[in-house]
Amino acid sequence: MAREVIKIMVSSTVYGFEKDIRVLCATIESYKSAQYEYKVLNSYIGTIYVAPGVSNAEACLRAVNECDFFLGLILPRYGSGITHQEFTRAVELDKPRGYLSHFSVRYARELLAQYMYTDFKNRVKNLNFNFKKTPVFEDARIIDMYNEAIQDAKPMEQRRWAHEFGHFDGDEMKFIKTEFEDINRLKADLDELKRLKAGQQ
Q1: Domain ranges across the chain
Q2: Each residue of 129-142: pLDDT tens digit?
Q3: What's the CA gap between 118 and 201, in Å, rounded?
Q4: Of 16, 6, 34, nearest in space to 179 by CA
Q5: Pick the CATH number of 4-200 from 3.40.50.10140, 3.10.450.50, 3.90.870.40, 3.40.50.720
Q6: What is the separation of C-alpha 189 from the centre of its chain, rounded to a whole number of angstroms?
């Protein structure tokens, strides 16, 4: 009997993380049980279908729609902005989701807060703030993406966790193992979340 497939989307962030992306995706797909297995949707490893006439960005957004769980990666490089669009779509759809964030993003967020906001407590943006690309941090929109991921503007009980990694080689894999190794537990949690959402409608 074929296993039921649980689709995990790993966001499109790649630059400087290519080898780790491959390991991360392969590790998730290695976890299975008698009833379930994972299929990873990720643009870098080539598992996102791009229909004829559809842009890369739209294909990635369709994959967000399709997935059962969205895993967002936040790195100090912004790239083309497709990853940010994926984050926004995952939040709009209220997809079950988790995040891995490179430690440098939190450092930059804390260092730049005094310049990015005229009122940090109420998150009032400084319209005169202008960030210039550096070799270690590419774009201040990464901080916007991080804030969107953790739901920074929401009340504390509604905020999300972005697990920090990059202090040691492979430390992101502890999060991956904890989140995905017990596939039966994750499936049960996803089903319960779906049941609760259906009851709210």
Answers
A1: 4-200
A2: 999 988 888 899 99
A3: 39
A4: 6
A5: 3.40.50.10140
A6: 19
Q: In angstroms, rounded to a whole number, what is the distance separating the alpha carbons of residues 29 and 141?
A: 31
Tens-digit pLDDT string for the chain (201 aa): 789 999 999 999 777 788 999 999 999 999 999 999 999 999 999 999 999 999 999 999 999 999 999 999 999 998 888 999 999 999 999 999 999 999 999 999 999 999 999 988 778 889 999 999 888 888 999 999 999 999 887 888 888 889 999 898 888 999 999 999 999 999 999 999 999 988 876
Please report where in the chains the tokens 């009833």 appear, as a residue.
35
> For residue 82, how many other CB atoms are within 10 A of its CB?
19
Annotate 9-39 with DSSP letters as a single string.
EEPS--TT-HHHHHHHHHHHHH-B-SSEEEE
Q: Which amino acid is at 89?
A: R
| 17, two tokens | 């993380």
Close Cβ partners of 147 (under 8 Å, ≥ 6 residues apart): 109, 123, 153
Tokens 């697990």 identify what position? 163
